[in-house]
Design brief:
CATH architecture: 3-Layer(aba) Sandwich
Number of domains: 1
Distance between the termini: 14 Å
Number of helices: 7
Largest sheet: 5 strands, parallel
Radius of gyration: 16 Å
Number of strands: 9
Length: about 190
């Protein structure tokens, strides 16, 4: 069972149970499942296909959770970028993983924006606050505005779901892949 299927099954069993709480914001499992499906369709509408990498440059927020599961449902590979990294380290990761999209917080985006010229494969940059969207970055909520009628790809639990980078303390960071099954089973 993939992570998206697991969320859908949980939403069917416990639709009104709280799934996430962050500050004053909370989502039920039904809301979380619906929003992540819309996000997955939004990713697809922007050209993200199964196996494409999406860089996630955020702290622990509702948007980060939505982005992870939106990627999982779209078959995209989520690539979290540590919020403490500098521009040259972000550039290395975006190039190394061949990210096709960047989603970040407004406070972190200025560290990624200089990579636009050196990372032309990153077709779209998004920020999580509409007021911070600009000519160089679109608003994350635009991805959630996709039509709810669409089809998501068929996925297997053996498909890669995330690439986690090592800290790179002794050499360049290395990307470690995890499948839907390895994440669901805690690495087993």
């Amino acid at each position: 069972m993939t992570l998206g299927e697991h969320l859908r099954e949980t939403a069917e069993r416990l639709p009104d149970k709280t799934a996430l709480i962050c500050g004053e914001t909370s989502l039920t499992f039904r809301e979380f499942d619906e929003q992540t499906t819309r996000l997955a369709l939004g990713l697809q509408a922007r050209g993200i296909a199964k196996g494409d990498r999406v860089a996630l440059h955020m702290n622990n927020t509702i948007e980060l959770s939505l982005a992870y599961f939106g990627c999982f449902k779209a078959g995209a590979i989520a690539v979290p970028i540590n919020s403490r990294l500098k521009t040259d380290e972000i550039e290395y990761m975006l190039q190394h993983c061949e990210a096709r999209m960047y989603i970040g917080e407004p406070e972190l985006y200025p560290l990624a924006e200089p990579t636009r010229d050196s990372c032309p494969h990153v077709g779209d940059f998004f920020v999580t606050a509409r007021s911070e969207a600009s000519d160089s970055a679109s608003c994350f909520s635009d991805l959630l505005d996709a039509p709810v009628d669409g089809s998501l790809p068929n996925l297997a639990e053996s498909d890669v779901a995330v690439i986690l980078y090592t800290s790179g303390t002794t050499a360049r960071p290395k990307g470690v892949t995890h499948t839907h099954a390895s994440l669901r089973n805690g690495g087993r």
